[in-house]
Amino acid sequence: MPTKLTEKQKATLWQQRRNANFLASSKLEGLSFAEVTLDAEQAAQRLEALRRQYGG
Predict the structure, then answer these.
(1) CB–CB of 46/38 below 8 Å?
(2) Phi and psi at residue 16, in whole multiples of 5°?
(3) Domain ranges, ordered by start, for the chain
């Protein structure tokens, strides 16, 4: 019997599908993007740098 997904698993799956759909639809329109993958620490550092830059 299949097990139910947790809310966190559902959110992760939805985000993965959303990203894949965005990239696919962009490709159909002739656009291309480099996929950015950051771990939690890198993302936090990037956010802090942007906050300093834009005074947020």
Answers:
(1) yes
(2) -65, -45
(3) 7-54
Cβ neighbors of 35 (< 8 A, separation 6 or more) are 19, 23
Q: What is the pLDDT of residues 36-49, one digit of tens each?
A: 888 999 999 999 99
Nearest to 33 by CA among 45, 42, 46, 24: 24
3-state SS record for the chain: CCCCCCHHHHHHHHHHHHHHHHHHHHHHCCCCCCCCCCCHHHHHHHHHHHHHHHCC
The two structure tokens encoding residue 23: 């990239």
Q: How far apart are CA 39 and CA 33, in angstroms?
A: 19
pTM over 0.85: no
